[in-house]
Each structure stands twice: as C-alpha cells, then as structure tokens.
Amino acid sequence: MDTTISRRSFVALASGSALAAASLAQAQAHAQGGAQGGEAAKAPAPLPQGAGFYRFSLGSFRCVSLGDAEFELPTRPTWGQPGSLDEADIAAALSYDFKKADAVRAYVQPLLIDTGSARILIDTGNGPRPDGTGKPVSRLRATLAAAGYQPSDIDVVVLTHLHGDHTGGLTDTDGTELMPKARYALHKDELAFWSGPNPDLSKTPNLPEGWKQNIVAGAKKAADLITPRAMQVADNDQVVPGVRVLHMPGHTPGLIALEVSDGGSQLLVANDLMHHDTLSLRRPLMPVMFDADIELGAKTRAKFLEKAASDKALVFSYHMPFPAIGRVRAEAGAFAWVADGWRW
Ligand SMILES: [Zn+2]
Q1: pTM of structure
Q2: pLDDT above 50: residue 201
Q3: Is the pLDDT reported for residue 23 higher than 70?
Q4: pLDDT tens for residues 131-159?
Q5: Which of 58, 80, 127, 331 is the most buried if burial means most Cβ atoms within 10 Å?
Q6: Are 272 and 1 in contact (CB under 8 A)?
Q7: How far is the CA of 312 from the centre of ligand 1 (A)?
Q8: How far is the CA of 41 from the centre of ligand 1 (A)?
Q9: How many A from CA of 106 to the centre of ligand 1?
Q10: DSSP assignment of 208-237, as one string?
C-alpha cells in the first residue's frame, strides 16, 4: 500500500536513539491538541518504547524484524466498493476483532536476513518522507543500528514493489542513497510498469486521482534511483541461495513474495499480500484501492492465504503488528492472522 497522503494519526513510540527525542516531541505535540482531540489531551504523552527490533533464526540464517513506522489509514475508501453493503461488513469484521470502524492501524517492518555470506534487506520502510503533520516518520536507521547493523552492511535490497512505504528508506533525509553499495532486486515487471510513460492504474477505480499521481511520482523516482544497480528477477529466481522469488501480481504488476529456506526451516515473506491483520484476512476478496488491479489483487491474496493456511507456513508480513511473524488459519469461510509469540 502507499500511505503518502493517508497517514495522519501517527503515534510516536520511539526507540532509545536520536530519533526518540524527535518522535517524542512529535507525540507530545500531537497529544496536546492533535487529531485525536479531547480524548488524547487527557492521556499522558507516550514514552519511548524498547529497541524496536526482533531477532529470530531460520536454520543458520539470522533474521531481524525492524520496526520502522505505524500509521492510521482511513478504512473507507481504502477497502470495499463505494455504495455497497461493504461498509457494514467492514465494520462487523473490525468490531469482531475489537477494532474501531473508521480507521485501521497499519505497521511498517522491513526484514533483514543475514545468511552469513550476504545481508539482505527486504523493503526499506517509510523513509524520511513527512507524515500528515509534516514530521518525518521512520526508525529504520535507529532499529538497524540497535540490531548491530549499518546501512553500509547491506549487500542486497529486495524491493517487493515500488510503493512509497516500501521505497521511502532508499534515501536519507538529504536525498542521498542510504545503502550506496547495495544491489536492488525487484521483479522485472515492476520496474517496467513504473518506468513506462503512463503506468495504467485504470483497474483501481476507487483510488482518487491525486493519490494516483502521488503513487506514480513516488514509484518513478524510486525506479530512477535504483535502475543503475537494479537486479531484475522473475518468478522462482533465487536472489541469493535460500531466498526464492514468488511472483504475486495484483497489488502491483511485479509484486513479489519470498520463500526463505535454510536447514529444513522455511519462512514466507508475504508483505503486501496483506495490509491489515483483520481486513486482509477476514475479507480477502474485498477490493482494496491500493491494488493496481483490484480483481487480480483479491484473487492473488486469497490464493496465497489458502496455500499459507493449508501448509501451516510461518509467515512474515510487512504491515502486520510488530514483529509481524505469524501463521494464517482458515476460519469461518475466510482466514485469521495468528501471531507468533515473542521469544527471548
Ligand atoms: Zn505497503
């Protein structure tokens, strides 16, 4: 998904770093009369959270879920067909999971995979782009450092697609490349689609025109930046040994998931096959306006969820609640996200 415009009610929960002070100040300003009004004014200002990263292993691979950002997204028109009964259905699904109906909380978590011989970063987070209050929101640098890595350690950046909430961290606040030595792996159709003269977004009729322009401009900028060191991949290619590409078109033409395997262990990196831990699973076929082709997006999502559920696969997914690791369960004619517990 792309959140350039819709991100609005950012709640700062920062790590113990330079970013913490800025984010805390932002949270305080927000709490003292921000978008949440009277209710927020009564609440104490949030204090910084922990380090914001979560390590786990997969065979001999070391993996780190890197907390980058969180934001609220308006439920409508993001999900459902305007003028349909979808609105009541969305509200019912959210209420069942104890969530409010008008906006949903989404999270942003790049994933680092250290295979021992290569360090791969999957998607780059929101980056220093401003949120609705004009403040930058990204903790990637801080959480990467807290986990013991520098941007210069990254050998390959895999971009699952070129929406801004996945490419924002390609550059630093001054526009310079954050990982100047890395190669950029992405699906060949993704680069071709956004690099073309007029990326066709006619199959997502609910997406407002201004948002379309914003998404296209952001993707073109990212495509220009990465092209000189782009490594174009196709379905079933290995980015590095143990990291295999799965082409999942719909959300964008070149969206990919990844199958990461080592020593008999396996992880599916689903990223934008899911955008929300309730709606993407409980209503997988409902149109999502950020899907460049809403029909194909829904079909691909449902097919992926069905396979993940029947395989009982361990799944990492970028927009799920931190640390974004869990499994998919078939439930009540649809699916549910079953989060994996924190392990020390
Ligand atoms: Zn996204």
Answers
A1: 0.86
A2: yes
A3: no
A4: 666 665 788 999 999 999 999 999 999 99
A5: 127
A6: yes
A7: 24
A8: 30
A9: 9
A10: -HHHHHHHHHHHHHHHHHHGGGEEEE-TT-
